[in-house]
From TrEMBL:
Name by which UniProt lists this protein: Autophagy-related protein
Cell compartment(s), UniProt: Endomembrane system
Source organism, top-level taxon: Eukaryota
Family: Belongs to the ATG22 family.
Pfam families: ATG22
GO cellular component: endomembrane system
Residue intervals passing through the bilayer: 21-38, 50-71, 109-133, 145-163, 267-288
Main location: membrane
């Protein structure tokens, strides 16, 4: 892998997330208009649910339309033939266990997924709590959608801004991840001390703003860095494992939110959990040696010097 290949991979990852945020912003704008025009705080329960149902239905059509287009025109890449006489479910779980065992033998890939497990859950938990707090303090659903739309727009701008910053200052994905996760831990600390309630509600945006600006870059850099540690021939299985971690970790955050709200009557204590998770993620990620991981995966053979600037330890 040449230096240009690594840079192109990073750029494609960032632009992919940027386009995703752009699509999300457009969809949220449509839903916001529907809620703003037809929502009536004094209306009946049926009217409220009907407007929400229409909005959710439009989202479903949006997903279906773009999914069909994608699957129609995406190039076919034939993989390995499915084993004959094998149960699909059993084969899937067997493959997952094999991938887990494989991860245990590759130290840097394992450290990375542990770090990702921690901060992915913390990030999802923080965003979920922000929405719950906003929902508690807002009388109209359109206000929640509008705030979410602002957050998505911040994520869109953040993806391209941080991509340029990385290119200008030659910052590695690992360094950028550690810096942004450190910022997220500081933001969580401030929120835990009450910033989210300060300045007449403006503190909420001081907390959510930096997080939403970094969200797209965090995901893009994480995927790009993880891709450099993948073992040739096992990319699909390892990325599937990555997705399982992403979705499965959310269960922990949901449990924390439920426990905190049940015991305190509010959600603010959850920020202490996210702060600790972000800090642990940074510490774990600091032990990842990218070049060693690439060497173990067979991706560093004779071009260490060329890649050193792109993938430092």
């Amino acid at each position: 892998r040449s230096k240009r290949e690594v840079e192109l991979q990073d750029e494609m990852s960032a632009k992919g997330f940027g386009l995703g945020y752009l699509g999300g912003t457009l969809m949220q704008g449509i839903v916001f208009l529907i809620l703003y025009l037809f929502e009536d705080p004094n209306g009946s329960e049926f009217q409220r649910l009907f407007v929400m149902s229409v909005s959710i239905g439009i989202v479903g059509f949006w997903w279906s339309g773009f999914s069909l287009y994608t699957f129609r025109y995406l190039k076919v890449r034939p993989g390995q033939p499915f084993p004959a006489g094998v149960n699909v479910i059993c084969h899937g779980w067997r493959s997952t266990c094999q991938t887990l065992y494989l991860m245990l033998t590759y130290r840097d890939a394992l450290l990375f997924v542990i770090s990702y497990f921690l901060w992915s859950d913390a990030l999802a938990t923080l965003l979920n709590v922000a929405i719950l707090i906003l929902d508690d303090t807002s009388e109209k659903g359109s206000s929640v959608i509008f705030s979410a739309m602002l957050g998505t727009m911040a994520g869109l701008l953040g993806v391209f801004f941080f991509m340029k910053v990385q290119q200008w200052f030659h910052i590695s994905n690992k360094a950028m991840l550690m810096a942004q996760l450190s910022v997220a831990s500081v933001v969580s600390l401030a929120a835990g001390f009450g910033l989210v309630q300060a300045f007449g509600g403006f503190g909420f945006y001081l907390v959510l703003g930096p997080i939403m600006t970094m969200t797209g870059t965090l995901q893009a850099n994480a995927r790009s860095l993880y891709a450099t540690l993948l073992i040739p021939g096992r990319e699909v299985a390892m990325f599937s494992f990555y997705t399982i971690l992403d979705k499965g970790s959310s269960l922990i955050g949901a449990l924390v939110i439920g426990l905190v709200h049940t015991s305190t009557g509010n959600y603010y204590g959850v920020f202490w959990y996210t702060m600790i998770a972000f800090i642990l993620a940074v510490v774990t990620l600091s032990f990842v040696d990218v070049k060693r991981g690439m060497r173990m995966a067979g991706k560093l053979e004779g071009n260490e010097g060329e890649l050193a600037a792109v993938a430092p330890p």
